TrEMBL record:
Complex formation: Monomer.
Lineage: Eukaryota, Metazoa, Chordata, Craniata, Vertebrata
Alphabetical GO biological process terms: fatty acid beta-oxidation
Organism: Gadus morhua (Atlantic cod)
A GO CC term assigned to this protein in UniProt: peroxisome
The keyword Manganese belongs to this UniProt entry's keyword annotation: no
Subcellular location field: Peroxisome
Protein name per its UniProtKB record: Peroxisomal bifunctional enzyme
Any Pfam family hit: 3HCDH_N
Chief location of this protein within or outside the cell: other
GO molecular function: (3S)-3-hydroxyacyl-CoA dehydrogenase (NAD+) activity; delta(3)-delta(2)-enoyl-CoA isomerase activity; enoyl-CoA hydratase activity; NAD+ binding
Length: 712
C-alpha cells in the first residue's frame, strides 16, 4: 500500500506502507502508481516527497514474490512506475530513512532529489540474490556516480553508509532530524524550477577512458569474486550498456539480462539462501522448545578462557556486540600477545579486561572456553567454572568436536552448558553453531541464539555428536579427497574441480591454510595413527574400513601447510599465502602408490565433484535422520556461511535437490560398488526413502524424516 496526503498546502507526501521493510509488493506498486498519478493531476500539488512508513524507506522488490511469476506479473511493473516518477513535471524528493535497497534505491534514483538521514544506508544488493538491479538501477546509477563507483556498488552489492553516499553524490543532502520534514521544506523550495538535468534517464554517463580495457578487467575481477556465478558478470554487462548505449537501449539490455537471471537456478539458489539465513533464527527442538515461546535471559558480561587463535577472535566478536569481556589466559606471553592483538582488532580497549586467573570469570553471565582441543584439560576447566561462576551463568565450549554432555557432567548445572562453535577467524566468519546436549535447557539455547544475533552471526541450533553438523559432514568430503590422491589425482586437479564448482578454495589449499597438524592431532586422539597403532596393522585399513595415511605421512615430514611453508603445496616462506605446485609432492605420491601397489588412473573433474560432494551430502542426510540438524535449510546455512559453499548453489542439500535425489543416489551406489570399503559412500536410508517417495521438494523432506527418533 501507499499512503497519500498533502502537507504545507502544496506537497504530496507518498508513504510506502508494507512492514517490516516496506518491500515493493504488487499492492505497494499499485498504490505507488495511483499516488504518482494523483500527484500529477492535482493542480494544487506542486511538489512530491516519497518516504517509507514508520522508518525504513524501502527494502526493494518483494523477494517472496520472485518464485511466483503470477505474483510478479500482477500489478504495475517497477520500471513503468519509476518512469512515471522521473517524468513527473513536479520535483520529486526521496526522503530516505533506515535503508533504500535494491528496488528501493532504484525508486530513489528515479526521483529528482535524494534526502537521507545521517544514519541511513543505501545499496543495490541484487547481485547477492543472483540478480542485477533490474528496474533501471544498472542504467541510472552509472549516470549519477560515473561507471567506476556505480560498478563497484552493483557488483559487490555492498550497503553504503549515508556519509559515503553523500560524498559519492548519491545523496544530495543529509539531515540528523526528521527526514520527511526536511524533504518537504526542500521540495517546496524546488517548486517551479527546471527538472531536466535532474532526470538521470536524460543524462549521459560521465565519459570513461579506455572503456574496453576497463570492462575486460572488470569481467575478470567479477569472475574471480564468485566463481561460476552468472549475476556479477551480467552486472558488468549491464553497466557497460549504461556507459555505451542511449538510456532506452540500455534499459532493454538490462531487461534481457534480468529475464535470463530471474529464471535461472542460480537466482533460485541465492534466494533460498536469503531465507535459510533468516529461517535459522526460528529454531525448534524435538522436545517442543521453540524460538517464539522461550524467553532468553539477557547476557551483558562474558569471560573467554584461552586466548589462542579462537579466543582472541571470540573476545573481539563479543566486545563488538557491546558486552564487557574479561579474557583469561594462563600463559603470560600468550596473554601479552593476545592483549595487543585484541586491542589492534578493536582499535582500542573496547570494554575488555585481562587476567591470568580463572576467578576473574566469577561475575560473567556467559563463559566461553577456547583452550586446547583436549578433553582432560577442558573437563578440569568446566569443573572449576562450575564452582567459580555465579549460579545463572551459562558455560559454553568452543570445541570443534568433543562431547558437550561429557563437559556438562563435570558441572552442577548441566542445563546451562552448551557449545558455541565459532569459525576461524571468529570475529569475521558469519556462522555460529549453537550446540545443545541432551540436558541443555531451551532457555540456554534461546540466550545463545539471541547473543549470536547481537554479534551479527548466522546462528544455527544443532545437536551434540562428534563434529556436530559442519565438521561431521566435512570428514567424508576430506576422506574422499585423500582417496582420490591415492587413486591417481593431484591436489591441483581436486582443487581446480572444487574451485570451478564455486568454492573460494579447494580442499587441499584449505587444509594448508588451517594446518594439517590439527587433523593429525585429532586422528592421534582417536587412535587412528601415532604410537597406539601397532606395526602389524595394515597402513591403509582402520577398523575394517579404508583409511588413507597420507595426511599423517605429510605431518611426519613436517609439512603442516602454510605455517611451515610446505604442505600439499609449496609456499615461498612459512606463513606465505601463494600456493605453488611442488614437484616433491608428485614424487612422494608416485612412491606411495608404488609402495602400496596402487595403479594411478585418469580421474576427471566430474568424479572429483561426485565423490567429494555426494559423500558430504550423504552424511547430511544422516545428520537429518539423526535429528542433529532440524532441517535441510539449517544444514545449508551452515555450509554457506561457515564453509564457503557457493551461495549461487544454495548449500549441499539444496544442490542435491537441484541435481536430483535419484541421480545422487545412483552416483553413490555406483561409487560404493567400486569402493565397498568406504562406508561414507553407502547411500543412507533417508536418501533412499526420499527417492522412493518420489523425491519431494526440499521443504517437504521433514515429512519423510518425521517418525524417526531424534537426538537434538
Ligand atoms: C523481470 C522482473 C523484474 C523485477 C524487477 C526487480 C527489481 C530489483 O531491482 C530487484 C530487487 O529489488 S531485489 C531486492 C533487493 N533488496 C534486498 O536484497 C534487501 C533484502 N533485505 C535485507 O537486506 C534486510 O532484510 C534489510 C536490511 C532490509 C533489513 O534487515 P533486518 O535485519 O532489519 O530484517 P530481516 O530480518 O532481514 O528482515 C525482516 C523480515 O523482512 C523480510 N524481508 C526483508 N527484505 C525483504 C524483501 N526485499 N522482500 C520481502 N521480504 C523481505 C525478511 O525475510 C524478514 O521476514 P521473515 O523471514 O518472515 O522474518
Ligand atoms: N583453530 C580453529 O580453526 C578452530 C578451533 N576451534 C576450537 O577452539 C579451541 C581453541 O582452539 P585454538 O584457538 O585453535 O587453540 P590455540 O592453541 O591457538 O589456543 C589455546 C589457548 O588456550 C590456552 N590455555 C590452555 N589451557 C588453559 C587454561 N587452563 N586456562 C586458560 N588458558 C588456557 C593456551 O595457552 C592457548 O593460548 C579448541 O577447542 C579448538 O578445537 C574451533 C573452531 C575452529
Amino acid at each position: 500500500m501507499a499512503q497519500y496526503r498533502i502537507v504545507s498546502g502544496s506537497v504530496a507526501v507518498i508513504s510506502i506502507q508494507n512492514p517490516p521493510v516496506n518491500a515493493l509488493s504488487a499492492a505497494v506498486r499499485e498504490g505507488l502508481l495511483l499516488s504518482v498519478r494523483a500527484a500529477a493531476s492535482d493542480p494544487l500539488v506542486r511538489s512530491v516527497v516519497i518516504s517509507g512508513h514508520n522508518g525504513p524507506f524501502c527494502g526493494g522488490a518483494d523477494i517472496k514474490e520472485f518464485g511466483n511469476v503470477s505474483h510478479l506479473e500482477s500489478g504495475p511493473h517497477l520500471v513503468e512506475i519509476f518512469e512515471s516518477v522521473e517524468a513527473l513535471a513536479k520535483p520529486v524528493v526521496a526522503a530516505i530513512e533506515g535503508f533504500a535497497l535494491g528496488g528501493g534505491l532504484e525508486l530513489a534514483l528515479a526521483c529528482h532529489y535524494r534526502f537521507g538521514h545521517s544514519e541511513a544506508r543505501v545499496g543495490l544488493p541484487e547481485v547477492s540474490l543472483g540478480l542485477l538491479p533490474g528496474a533501471g538501477g544498472s542504467q541510472r546509477l552509472p549516470r549519477l556516480l560515473g561507471v567506476r563507483a556505480a560498478l563497484d556498488m552493483i557488483v559487490t552489492g555492498r550497503h553504503v553508509a549515508a556519509g559515503e553516499a553523500l560524498k559519492l553524490g548519491l545523496l544530495d543532502r543529509l539531515t540528523d532530524g526528521n527526514t520527511v520534514d526536511a524533504a518537504v521544506r526542500f521540495a517546496q523550495s524546488a517548486e517551479g524550477k527546471p527538472l531536466d538535468d535532474r532526470r538521470l534517464g536524460n543524462r549521459p554517463c560521465p565519459p570513461l577512458e579506455n572503456i574496453d580495457a576497463f570492462f575486460e578487467e572488470a569481467l575478470i575481477h567479477a569472475r574471480g569474486r564468485a566463481r561460476g556465478a552468472a549475476a556479477p558478470l551480467a552486472c558488468v554487462q549491464a553497466v557497460r550498456g549504461a556507459a555505451t548505449l542511449p538510456f532506452l537501449k540500455g534499459m532493454e539490455l538490462e531487461k534481457r539480462l534480468m529475464e535470463t537471471l530471474m529464471t535461472s537456478g542460480q537466482a533460485q539458489a541465492s534466494r533460498y539462501c536469503f531465507f535459510t539465513e533468516r529461517g535459522a533464527a526460528r529454531w525448534t527442538t524435538p522436545t517442543g522448545a521453540r524460538w517464539d515461546t522461550c524467553r532468553a535471559r539477557p547476557i551483558s558480561t562474558a569471560a573467554v578462557i584461552g586466548l589462542g587463535t579462537m579466543g582472541r577472535g571470540i573476545t573481539v566478536a563479543l566486545a563488538r556486540a557491546g558486552l564487557s569481556v574479561v579474557a583469561v589466559e594462563t600463559q603470560e606471553h600468550q596473554l601479552d600477545e593476545a592483549q595487543r592483538a585484541v586491542s589492534r582488532m578493536l582499535k582500542g580497549g573496547g570494554g575488555v579486561s585481562y587476567s591470568a586467573d580463572l576467578q576473574a570469570a566469577a561475575g560473567a553471565d556467559l563463559v566461553v572456553e577456547a583452550v586446547f582441543e583436549d578433553m582432560a584439560v577442558k573437563e578440569e576447566i568446566f569443573k572449576q567454572l562450575s564452582s567459580v561462576c555465579k549460579p545463572g551463568a551459562l558455560l559454553a565450549t568452543n570445541t570443534s568436536s568433543l562431547d558437550i554432555d561429557r563437559l556438562a557432567s563435570c558441572t552442577l548445572r548441566p542445563e546451562q552448558v552448551l557449545g558455541l562453535h565459532f569459525f576461524a577467524p571468529a570475529h569475521v566468519m558469519r556462522l555460529l553453531e549453537v550446540v545443545s546436549g541432551p540436558r541443555t535447557s531451551p532457555q540456554t539455547v534461546a540466550a545463545a541464539m539471541q547473543l549470536g544475533r547481537r554479534m551479527g552471526k548466522v546462528s544455527v541450533a544443532v545437536g551434540n555428536c562428534p563434529g556436530f553438523v559442519g565438521n561431521r559432514m566435512l570428514k567424508p568430503y576430506l576422506e574422499q579427497a585423500y582417496f582420490l590422491l591415492e587413486e591417481g589425482a593431484s591436489p591441483e586437479l581436486v582443487d581446480a574441480a572444487l574451485e570451478e564448482f564455486g568454492f573460494p578454495m579447494g580442499v587441499f589449499k584449505m587444509s594448508d591454510l588451517s594446518g594439517l597438524d590439527i587433523g593429525w592431532r585429532v586422528r592421534k586422539e582417536e587412535g587412528l595413527t601415532g604410537p597406539g597403532v601397532t606395526a602389524d596393522q595394515p597402513m591403509r585399513t582402520r577398523r575394517g574400513r579404508r583409511y588413507s595415511p597420507l595426511g599423517d605421512l605429510m605431518c611426519e615430514e613436517g609439512r603442516y601447510g602454510q605455517k611451515t611453508g610446505r604442505g600439499w603445496y609449496l609456499y615461498d616462506r612459512p606463513g606465505a599465502r601463494v600456493a605453488r605446485s611442488d614437484p616433491w609432492l608428485r614424487s612422494f605420491l608416485e612412491e606411495y602408490r608404488e609402495r602400496h601397489g596402487l595403479l594411478a588412473r585418469r580421474i576427471d573433474q566430474q568424479e572429483v565433484l561426485e565423490r567429494c560432494l555426494y559423500a558430504l551430502i550423504n552424511e547430511g542426510f544422516r545428520v537429518l535422520e539423526d535429528g542433529v540438524a532440524a532441517s535441510p535449510q539449517n544444514i545449508d546455512a551452515i555450509y554457506v556461511f561457515g564453509y564457503g559453499w557457493p551461495k549461487h548453489r544454495g548449500g549441499p542439500m539444496f544442490y542435491a535437490a537441484q541435481v536430483g535425489l535419484a541421480r545422487v543416489l545412483e552416483g553413490l551406489e555406483k561409487y560404493h560398488k567400486a569402493h565397498p570399503d568406504s562406508p561414507h559412500l553407502q547411500p543412507c536410508s533417508l536418501l533412499r526413502r526420499l527417492v522412493a517417495s518420489g523425491s519431494p521438494p526440499i521443504h517437504k523432506w521433514s515429512e519423510v524424516v518425521k517418525g524417526h527418533r531424534s537426538q537434538l
